[in-house]
Structures are given as structure tokens and as C-alpha cells.
Amino acid sequence: SGANTLALFATPKFAIQGYVFANRLGWRPLVFNNAVSSASNIMTLASEGNTNKAVENSVSIAFLKDPTDPKWRTDAAMRLYRSVLAKYARGANAKDVYHVYGMAVAHETARVLKATGKNPTRAALVAQLRKLNDASNPFLLPGIAIKTSGTERFPIEQALLQRWSKGSWQSFGGLWGYRAG
Length: 181
What we know:
Mean pLDDT: 94
Shape: globular
Low-confidence stretches: none
Strand order of the largest sheet: 3-6-7
Largest sheet: 3 strands, antiparallel
CATH architecture of the largest domain: 3-Layer(aba) Sandwich
Order of helices and strands: EHEHEHHHEEEE
Helix content: 25-40%
CATH class of the largest domain: Alpha Beta
CATH topology of the largest domain: Rossmann fold
Number of helices: 5
Strand content: 15-25%
Radius of gyration: 18 Å
């Protein structure tokens, strides 16, 4: 058909299958993979021991710190992440970015609940959720903020472009902002 682009907007299982079948066909398109299926541990599975050439040069986005990236090894938030995981989720895969996502959500939830005051109500919680402006979530990539308003309710509208190269994600192009919806 001459198609040279593949958009894998799927959950991890089906994204992996997409990579496997593209490789079996000998098809080498430029692949755009959604953030849900771009975790390093998922990409490593899809690469089939670095034998799946369809995975190489895939493009995706990131907004969380990748627990497999050596540059975050000594980062205070990632040390906290590994500590909490070891204490409360023994046996959990510390290389799984979905756990980082969970901690980012927990961090923000705790911050919002504290902001509702000593006697939180549903109305106070909703009011806080409609005015998020937090650039201090330690599990997000530097420069990424969580922001909402009365009319804008999508909390993260920034991401880093990344390309899969030789077994890991490499960022390019700097931080991008977009408007959801």
C-alpha cells in the first residue's frame, strides 16, 4: 500500500502485538505510540530482545520520570518512589512507570485534600480541583505542571517528545504544550 506510518493508540498488549506483526511483515514504518503503551518495560517487551526492528525510532510522549532512565537514579523523588514501593508494594516491578504514575496521582491527591482545609466537603474538594496550579509534583518531568480552571479540566497539557533508540527513550524537541479538547 505504500503506508509508511503506524499509529499505535492501543493498550500495551495490543501495541506489542502491533509491533510484533509489523516486524513479521518486514514493515518499517514510523511508529507513533501513545503514552499508555510507551512505558520502557512495555517497549522492552515489544523489542523482543532487540530483535524487533519495528520498535526502533518509535515516537511517543512523556510527562513522568522514567524509573529505568539512569539520569533519575539519584533523584530525590525517585529515591522516595523506590523506598515507598519497597515498603508498601514488595515484589512490584520498580521499573514500571505505571507505579510512578500512581505515586504522582497520590502526591497530587494528598496536596488537594490538604488544601480543602480541616473540615473537607465535596464543594471544597471540587473548588480545589478547579484551580490546580502545581509545578512541584516531584514525579513529573521538570517543567511540567498540573493546571486546571473552571473551564479547563484536563490537568496535564505538556509533554516531552521522545524517540525509542537502542533500548531506551531519548527526548528531543524540548517540552511541548497543547490544549486538550
